[in-house]
Amino acid sequence: MSRPEDLATSDLDVELEAACGELRRYRSRQDDATAELMLAWIDALLDEWNRRANLF
């Protein structure tokens, strides 16, 4: 059975996995500007993850 916090962050799980894959792709292309944007997006997702985690 899922815990409430698992359900609260399941959408973020998918987003983080996708963002990390995109980050690797941009780094392999040496697209530093877009990689920096992806790092900022990942940081925002992790902030949201922590915010939701504090709700439980």
Task: Please tell me about this protein's structure.
With 56 residues, this protein is mainly alpha-helical. Helix content is 84%, strand content 0%. It contains two helices and no strands. Helix 1 packs antiparallel against helix 2 (32-53). The longest helix has 25 residues, at 4-28.
How are the SSEs placed, and which strands pair?
Blueprint: H1 4-28, H2 32-53
Question: Would you kindly provide a brief summary of this structure?
Answer:
This protein has two helices and no strands.
Number of strands: 0
Low-confidence segments, ≥5 residues, pLDDT <50?
none
**DSSP helix count?**
2
Question: What's the helical proportion of residues?
Answer: over 70%
Structural class assignment: mainly alpha
The end-to-end distance, rounded to whole angstroms, is 17 Å
Average pLDDT, rounded to a whole number, is 89
Strand content: under 5%
Question: What profile does the largest beta sheet have?
Answer: none
Shape field: elongated
**What's the SSE pattern?**
HH
- Rg measurement, Å: 13 Å
Q: What features would you highlight for this structure?
A:
2 helices; 56 residues
